[in-house]
Amino acid sequence: MEMEETVSRVVSELEEHRGNPQPPPLSEQILTDLQLLLRHSLSESLYDELSSKNLSPSSLNPPIASAMDSSPPHHSLLASDVFLSLLLSPNAPVFTLFTPISFLSFLRSLRRSCKAHSHSGPAQHAPQPRKRKRAGRPRARNPQNDDDSPDAGPQQHDPGLLLRVLEKLVRVMDLIHLDRFPETLKSLIQTVAEIPVTAQDTCGSAAQYSNLLGLCSRVLNAVLEPEHGEPSDTAAEVLKSLCSLVLMAKSQARTFALGFVTSLGGKRDGVKKALVNFPRYLAVKAPEKAEPRALAVDSIMEVVRVVEDEEQIAFVKYVVQMAQGKSSLRLLAVDLILNLVMSLKNPLGVESLDSESGLSEVWGVWCLEALVKRCSDVSGAIRARALSTLAQLVGFLGRGERTSVVLREFMGFGKGGDGNVEGGMNDMLRKRCMDDKAAVRKAALLLVTNLTSLLGGAIDEVVLKTMGLACSDPLISMRKAAIAALSEAFRTFSSETVITEWLHSVPRLIIDNESSIQEECENMFQELVLDRISIAASATSSYSEFSSNRKMKGKGIDNEMEMLFPNGILYLLREICNGEVSPWVKKICTNLGKKKRMNHKIVSALQNIIGASESIWLRHSMPIEKWTAPPGAWFLLSEVSTFLSKAIDWEFLHHHWQLLDKHEVEGEFKSPFVQKNAFAEEESIECNSVAWASDRVFLLQTISNVSVELPPEPAADLAHNLLKRVEQFNMHSTEVDAHLKALKTLCKRKASNLEQAEALVLKWVQQVLSRASDIIEKFISENSEQNAQGSFFTPPRSGTRKGKKSAAMSKSLSKAVTAIYTVGTLVIVCPSADMSNIVPLLHTIITSGSSGPKLNKLPGPATSLQQEAPSFYIQGWLAMGKLCLADGKLAKNYIPLFVQELEKSESAALRNNIVVMMADFCVRYTALVDCYIAKITRCLLDPCELVRRQTFILLSRLLQRDYVKWRGVLFLRFLLSLVDESEKIRQLADFLFGNILKVKSPLLAYNSFVEAVFVLNNCHVHNGHRESQGSQTERQLFSVRGTDEKSRSKRMHIYISLLKQMAPEHLLATFAKLCAEILAAASDGLLNIEDATGQSVLQDAFQILGCKEIRIPSTRASSDSADVEEEGGENGSAARGKAITQAVKKGLIQNTVPIFIELKRLLETKNSPLIGSLMECLRVILKDYKNEIDDILVADKQLQKELIYDIQKYEAAKAKATVAEAEGTKPKSVGQSKNNNKLPSDSRVASAMADAAAAATARSVLREINKGTGTPTLGSLNVPKVKSCTGTGNSKHVKRVDVIQSVMKRQSFDSDEEN
Question: Which PANTHER family match (predicted)?
Fold first, then answer.
């Protein structure tokens, strides 16, 4: 009875709207009634009742469709449920109930219900028919806008209802055939593809969402059946709709889409065909940003893995072709190649490679070839990415034995291969390691690192040197990459070149400002040096026992040592004590010792190396007094002994000290020169006194370091022996410091407290000083007497008697030099010692070269010690310098003498030592030395390269530590180091200006630029030039004046180096200052352009204004820099530079062009040769600032005409001169001499061609300026020789080609091309 009432209500509702073309939506009550009837399978009763009322079953569609289009999501979804239930009811007239219009309404209802909680999903693609509501209805909202209606709240939505609707939709797909309705099928696919994204927030739990995704998958699988259309077309539409999900960020929706797509691999052929093309479609749709692009690559690879092998290779071919497309596709292709090679099987064909198939048939080689080409791409981002990808593939493919062989063959390093050929791998690496993009250089170093492992360390020497230079790169990441690359090369291949480059590049980074680089430097040194030496020397004892039982007469000592310590251990030790490496080794050892990271094994290893060397020497029956330890062994032991004193055996030290001490007592080494060996045929056993002295020095340092652990009696005996050796004054100068420092340390060990130790030290210091002063005084008096006696004999005495005296004097000189050097060392060891007896002697020595009336009255030698004993004279200045460092009053009196000697001395060694002393004085007595800095800077132009380099380094350090300021002429004099004759000094200067000053004093180059132009040309009209600071001679000395090509190129190199340090805003300001202070000054008569220096200044200004370095960095490469996501700072700097320059450039040019015009007229009146330079500069400015000059020329037509005419005139004259010069230098032949009458016609032709070229050049420049403006065409202007060349009609396009070609041929345009 109740069901009958329900049927009656439904039918009555339908009867009420009979004949209405747009019936209102069924109420929720009616929909509930219908749902109840269908749930109880009473659809037959409903149809019977409809038939009795003359209503067709299709009458249910309009009101249900209207309900599905209604605004409340719950109401709409309920209507959708009823609609599907009607189709699923028993014996339902499916073809009558199903219509495309009603199904589209159902799809709109489904989308709206899913979007009730999410408004960020993909846009709706289904068509939405427009329907108007009746005017009398209370609900007047537009269903199209129901997505944002406030009553679509979550409280009205039931996730379970949505799941039921999708379940019924899956069942309905078996009843309906959509092949007749392709648009409906397309809308269904798009709707279902959107549901995983839009319904993510609708589902209340993860389980419900998982069920939802399963239902969507079932629907999409159902539409692929043949009854719904051609499977290949349907599959293509499904994949196209899922593309946005596949390319989205990681989420469940993306996982669902990928899972569904990969499941299509087992479907019928039509579906597989669409799946094969899907990766290519994804590649085209892939985003350009890094993270989304990486996800797209992952998605593409997921799809590629499920297709067959033939299709995978076809996709590889597509990717290789894509690597030659536009920039975004090339970048994506590089990423895809990496994943293809690492994911797919057998990339290099090693599992199926036979003799008939070559490498060209292997798809992995295609990928590698494409990568190598991309390593030289025009885009920096692609170059960097390709290099890093190639590095990863080298590391990946190099793991297999067979793949590594193929890889080496491909790289050109296989059998008979040469990677050094033009265009080869090494050639490419050399270029990329010096690339202007930091990311490219870093990736190149990574590739070198992996290639080193692949090739076993066989690295090109140029690449190796480049890696060493990269250790000084301004970027931290670059320095880290260089350390890793060089260390991998050292770790893999211990050749002498690799060891040398590593030791000269990596250890110096211990003073890097970045702490992480310092730590990496320490780690690498410990692993590659200390641990390597420890491991190599651990097997020494067993090898020695084995070799002692063998006859090794055929083996030399060096060969036996190399066999005993392989892998370059001996060469490594020898290079460690190199003067350029040892300071950094000391610093590293100190840092490792302070961190307690020193291992006692290194001490045992070094003792084993020294002991083994001695044993092998004795085994070959060589005299022990000729033996020296392997170079570097004692040095390294002395450094590590500071922190491992307990690990060193005192008996070992005592034995070798007695050996070396006995060696000297026996008198084998009485001079610091090489002693000839009795066994002349054995070159390997020639003994060098310097090596012997070095061994003694480092042994003494080791003894000094472990003196705390020495027994008291041996320590006292050793101290006594050392003091006796010092008082003999016959040691090499390198030994004196070590002896005195060891004495001081042993005295502290012997004394019971600090005061007693100081008293003991002072006692023996005074004793040694007394002995030294006697020897010095004796030498001075002997020298004076000898000179006095020699002056009475004419001619001079000669013969055996003179030879004996000369030998005695030589011995006395050697002893006096050692004594005076010892005095200087004693001042450092004990500054409190009494030097009252020494100062007069030193004063006598250093003033012996002076010839003043006052100085002649002083007691002393009649002739100059500077001439008779130069070494003694130099040591006197050194000792006086050390005394001045200890005594401020003495320094105040003698510093002027040091400066005077620096200016007049002819000895490069003395000048070098005085520069070092003046640098120390500047630290200790800054105020006293400050007034002499200008005189010290004269040494920057010293004839001796060593003095110049030493001066540059010392002054640079003082400037960095702010002991000296960049004021006065100091900066301007430093500029000449940029063009020094020595390449080392030029490199130091480039580093100082390009790295240190750019950070520490960024405004220095800008503030001093214009003044530098005047100073370098020795021109004195500039307001900022300081006339009082230096004589005319000094001004000429520190200038590069001259109009010759060499002088001009030197000045331009300096200018360009300064311009490279400036920010964009400073470049603009420098441009303005040059125009205001040089060009405007010349046009106003303040700068004399008839004077040679004035002309040189003006010509330099024109060249600077026309060079590319003064231009603002172009934004043409913004697309490339945007791709370089590893270098994120480039985009910000480019945007900042663009914002700065937009308004400033326009105002700058508005003020500049009138100055050029005025100056041009002045130069024309004087018929100056500078008119050519001015026109070249003006042409460059017109081309570079064409957008800003455009507004000026529009406002001033007369100026436009003048510029056109002047440029044309100048270009014509220049072209004629070029032709005339070519004719003049052309060799004359017999035929030419007979046809001299033809030359005038040839000249006329050349002249006509020059006129045409000049006109074309002028038009090309101004045409670029006038592009896009309202300025009249040049043909309408009354300008001679221009109007006739303009042309109209079709000839205009031909002329444009001629113009472009003429511009490209002109030499004057070469400097404008940046790419």
Answer: CONDENSIN, CONDENSIN-2 COMPLEX SUBUNIT D3
